[in-house]
């Protein structure tokens, strides 16, 4: 009670000061023409403190001033955009744990899209990935809690937990007629960022998968390129990569581009901050295909968009997520911080990624590619006289196209086999195009 009284005295003093200041400035305004914008700000501050005072004195239950201020800050940031947020002690602790690269959870990257809790991507070889969670799924329920209108940090906090404990998420998926329940067992999430694989029967092609932009992406990708000097083309797979460190995205582009702007950021009160390519950092001029999809966000959009603008790579797949904003984290106490959007990223062509994404040069949906021997019906000149019925009998009317699921063991193999390639139309298209580019270069 003493603490509450003290808080009320402080707030009351603050209100009195504002009233006094407004009165003085009103007089000065008439004489010296003080800025009306400053007066509007003071009126807004006064409105806030008046509401705060009224709640403290008249609300049906006793409320703590600290609690009210925290809720006000949280609401203020949440209403700015979907990425700005107030980090209380628990949220800040969760974020610091995740930055260490190992934690107990599901293995999904989530964000707010059109006001809905949306899965940006399931991380490779994690419980969520193996359970069949997909990029673009909208979470409407977490266990027995309604996720509609739930804040991002609250959802993350609920889904994290001790390894080997179960959780059920209910999602809405495009193309499905009703919500799906997905049961997942939490596990320790270890984030490996770069995977190097061989493509069966295509020894000329270097396949590099970057799953997240941690601090070792540039180092490990550079090592992969340098250790394969005989390769004649590169496939860089950024599908379901939800982003990460900006310097790693810039460094990755710099391996393929020798001059010009890679990306720049600009904010309301910030000068234009450019990140430039350097010829000394260029590693290769090999033909390059970059794979993207709706789960490619933030740093992966910077890489794909910049390489596209420099005409250094062919971007293949689906339109990316569309997160092109910059957040800064500022500690406001020993256990609290705010994450605030302070700028937007812009690609070399001055286009923004925010809410638009990167549109591929060649759009290819994920799905299975039929092999020649799976669809071998054809009509030739010799078939037109009396043989049509015989040819029609070759069609298998019960055949269906199967979509490759997340549980394929091929994803964890060091060799991508032919059978798996035919289950991934995007990868198959990338291989075909890259083979053509290699032939042209010869």
In brief:
The protein has 4 domains: 2-63; 85-190, Pdz3 Domain (Roll), CATH 2.30.42; 194-363, 2-enoyl-CoA Hydratase, Chain A, domain 1, CATH 3.90.226.10; 372-424, no CATH class. The chain contains 12 helices and 20 strands. The chain has helices at residues 2-32, 36-58, 65-78, 89-99, 127-131, 152-159, 217-226, 246-254, 299-309, 388-392, 418-421, 425-441; strands at 85-87, 102-105, 108-113, 116-122, 138-142, 145-146, 166-172, 180-185, 187-190, 194-199, 205-210, 233-237, 261-266, 273-276, 288-292, 314-317, 325-331, 337-346, 362-363, 415-416.
Write the layout of secondary structure elements.
Elements: H1 2-32, H2 36-58, H3 65-78, E1 85-87, H4 89-99, E2 102-105, E3 108-113, E4 116-122, H5 127-131, E5 138-142, E6 145-146, H6 152-159, E7 166-172, E8 180-185, E9 187-190, E10 194-199, E11 205-210, H7 217-226, E12 233-237, H8 246-254, E13 261-266, E14 273-276, E15 288-292, H9 299-309, E16 314-317, E17 325-331, E18 337-346, E19 362-363, H10 388-392, E20 415-416, H11 418-421, H12 425-441
Parallel strand pairs: 10-20, 11-12, 12-15, 15-16, 16-19
Antiparallel strand pairs: 1-18, 2-9, 3-4, 5-6, 5-7, 7-8, 10-11, 13-14, 13-18, 17-18
Helix pairs in contact: 1-2, 7-8, 8-9
Would you write up a description of this structure?
With 442 residues, this protein is an alpha/beta fold. It has four domains: 2-63; 85-190, PDZ domain (Pdz3 Domain, Roll), CATH 2.30.42; 194-363, 2-enoyl-CoA Hydratase, Chain A, domain 1, CATH 3.90.226; 372-424, no CATH class. Helix content is 33%, strand content 23%. The chain has twelve helices and 20 strands. The strands form five sheets. A seven-stranded mixed beta sheet has the order 19-16-15-12-11-10-20, sandwiched between helices. Strands 1, 13, 14, 17 and 18 form a five-stranded antiparallel beta sheet that branches. Strand 15 (288-292), helix 9 and strand 16 form a beta-alpha-beta unit. Helix 1 runs antiparallel to helix 2 (36-58), helix 7 runs parallel beside helix 8 and helix 8 (246-254) packs parallel to helix 9 (299-309). It is globular and about 80 Å long. The N and C termini lie far apart (82 Å).
């Amino acid at each position: 009670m003493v603490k509450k009284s003290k808080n009320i005295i402080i707030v009351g003093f603050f209100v009195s000061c504002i009233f006094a200041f407004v009165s003085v400035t009103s007089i000065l305004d008439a004489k010296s023409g003080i800025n009306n914008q400053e007066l509007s700000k003071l009126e807004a501050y006064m409105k806030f403190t008046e509401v705060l005072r009224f709640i403290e004195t008249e609300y049906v239950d006793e409320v703590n001033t600290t609690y009210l201020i925290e809720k006000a800050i949280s609401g203020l940031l949440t209403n700015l955009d979907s990425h700005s947020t107030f980090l209380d002690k628990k949220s800040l602790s969760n974020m610091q744990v995740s930055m260490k690269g190992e934690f107990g959870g599901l293995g999904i990257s989530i964000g707010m899209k059109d006001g809905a809790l949306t899965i940006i991507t399931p991380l490779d070889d994690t419980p969520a990935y193996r359970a069949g969670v997909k990029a673009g799924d909208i979470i409407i329920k977490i266990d027995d809690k309604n996720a509609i209108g739930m804040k991002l940090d609250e959802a993350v906090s609920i889904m994290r937990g001790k390894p080997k404990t179960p959780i059920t998420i209910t999602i809405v998926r495009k193309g499905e007629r009703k919500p799906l329940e997905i049961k997942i067992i939490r596990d320790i999430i270890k984030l490996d960022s770069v995977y190097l694989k061989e493509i069966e029967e295509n020894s000329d092609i270097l396949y590099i998968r970057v799953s997240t932009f941690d601090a070792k992406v540039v180092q490990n990708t550079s090592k992969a390129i340098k250790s394969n000097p005989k390769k004649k083309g590169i496939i860089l797979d950024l599908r379901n990569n939800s982003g990460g460190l900006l310097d790693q995205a810039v460094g990755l582009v710099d391996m393929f581009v020798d001059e010009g702007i890679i990306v720049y950021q600009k904010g309301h009160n910030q000068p234009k901050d450019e990140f430039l390519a350097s010829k000394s950092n260029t590693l290769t001029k090999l033909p390059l295909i970059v794979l993207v999809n709706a789960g490619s966000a933030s740093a992966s959009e910077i890489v794909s968009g910049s390489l596209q603008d420099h005409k250094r790579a062919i971007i293949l797949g689906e339109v990316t997520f569309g997160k092109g904003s910059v957040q800064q984290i500022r500690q406001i106490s020993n256990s609290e911080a705010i994450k605030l959007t302070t700028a937007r990223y812009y690609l070399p062509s001055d286009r923004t990624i925010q809410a638009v994404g990167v549109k591929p040069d060649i759009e290819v949906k994920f799905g299975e590619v039929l092999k020649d021997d799976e669809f071998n019906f054809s009509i030739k000149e010799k078939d037109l006289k009396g043989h049509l019925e015989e040819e029609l009998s070759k069609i298998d009317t019960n055949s269906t196209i199967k979509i490759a699921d997340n549980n394929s063991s091929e994803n964890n193999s060091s060799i991508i086999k032919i059978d798996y390639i035919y289950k991934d139309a995007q990868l198959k298209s990338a291989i075909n195009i890259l083979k053509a580019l290699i032939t042209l270069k010869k």
